[in-house]
Amino acid sequence: MRYFFLPVIIIFILASSALASYREAFEKEFLFKSWGGEEPEVNACIDCHSSDIMKKEFQSVMQSWKRSWHYQNNVLCHDCHGGDYKDATMSMSHQRGFLGTPKYTEVPDFCGKCHIGILRNYLESGHGKALQATGKGPNCVTCHGSHNIQKANIEIINEGLCTKCHTYERAKIMKQALFATENKIRDIDKKLEDLKIEGIYVGDEKRELFSTQAEFRALFHTIDADLVKQRTDDFTRKLNVIDTKIKNSFNEIHFRKNFSAFLMLIFIGLSIVVSLLSKTYKD
């Protein structure tokens, strides 16, 4: 009898083990996975800095970043700081390219990995030369912030910020030199959004505007009001080309709407005529 029960016990144990393995796989692959499609990509940097175990001052880094221009354009932690964001155990590994927080004098090169034209102009400016000479001049984060980085605009040039290092007078001249071009850029950007709402493809014009805007904002990192004034006509010409294309698109929209209204009036008129003729025929 015991020879009968022994195989039964072995089969029962193997079946239980197989069932447990199946249940684990089922829970892992089905019950605990999103039904909405692909799983969101793991980001160890965000998960760690957002967790309750992180110190408050480091949690605020995530909060600041989520209000930034980088966040809006999907620039993530590892894009600046390096490391392996997919592996929590290697996220701060120097073998995986982790750079951490740069020293104050290293910030321009740190940001300049992406902002190449801006870095070149900055290094030639009074700001850049002061940093290189003394190690205490303004760097990128002085004006733009370190994590809550906003889209570059002339509002950054303000009395409260500039007077931390010097008087506002020269900065004010610089802002006045930038004012007309910046307003033109904003106006065109708004018109492009209006066209997009109308269902018009504006990808080409968006790229032209972005390129012109990037070149212009790289220029004003020279902190040279005279140079900005010299180049204003050139930027105005480029922006006017984009603006003309936008006006043509709006004219086409208006033509289509007017033509559609005209066809509708003809259709209504013909319907009335046909209706009157049919009544006359019956009479």
Report on the structure:
- It is built from 13 helices and no strands.
- The chain has three domains: 43-86, no CATH class; 102-150, no CATH class; 152-283, no CATH class.
- By secondary structure, the protein is mainly α.
- The termini are far apart.
Write the layout of secondary structure elements.
Layout: H1 2-31, H2 44-49, H3 56-65, H4 69-72, H5 77-81, H6 107-112, H7 116-124, H8 126-134, H9 140-144, H10 159-162, H11 169-197, H12 203-219, H13 225-282
Helix pairs in contact: 7-12, 11-12, 11-13, 12-13
Number of strands: 0
The percentage of residues in β strands lies in under 5%
Oligomer: single chain
What order do the helices and strands follow? HHHHHHHHHHHHH
Low-pLDDT segments, ≥5 res: 1-8, 26-39
How is the biggest beta sheet arranged?
A: none
Output the keywords:
283 residues; mainly alpha; 3 domains; 13 helices; 68% helix; elongated; disordered N terminus
